[in-house]
């Protein structure tokens, strides 16, 4: 059975605003509610997952830390990082959580291949890596068969804040980004390509651009 998906391109959005909107969207949707993908960026923020340990926050400094309800440990979001929130009825799609994670990783790997970058996933450490350095992080929450939270791809950003934490709970993990691998990069082009990859890998019949922001879900 095929379904359509709506995509919102939201620009720069405060993390707490987006998080609360995701929760509201997920809690209020019904069996016939359409799936959505939100593509956006955040101002600088550290987010600590449900299993997060305080020792992985080394010296956050002036960057705020938000305790959130996704899986995983601590990560960083900031301008120049492409964030994708996947608000999907996973049960209706007929896939399990592990399969969903694999499809998201494959979307990122295929996107990077379009730029000539060879990347891979690690079963023991969700995310996408290039020569051992992490370029994309994943963190999901499933509630009543519906997913929220999603992925973060480092495109063209300041990587310094990652040195203030143990990224995803791994001490000494090197982070990388697309700009450092290929040179100057068009952020909007990367967004368009990721959008197409997610729609294809998740098996949607077609996509539609949704107008407006997420104010209705706040």
TrEMBL record:
Amino-acid positions noted as binding substrate in the UniProt annotation, renumbered to this chain: 70-77, 137-139, 150-152
Species of origin: Stutzerimonas stutzeri
HAMAP family assigned to the protein according to its UniProt record, in alphabetical order: LipB
GO biological process, any: protein lipoylation
Site keyed Lowers pKa of active site Cys: positions: 134
Name the record gives this protein: Octanoyltransferase
Keyword entries, A-Z: Acyltransferase, Cytoplasm, Transferase
Classification via InterPro entries: aa-tRNA-synth_II/BPL/LPL, BPL_LPL_catalytic, Octanoyltransferase, Octanoyltransferase_CS
Domain spans labelled BPL/LPL catalytic: 31-206
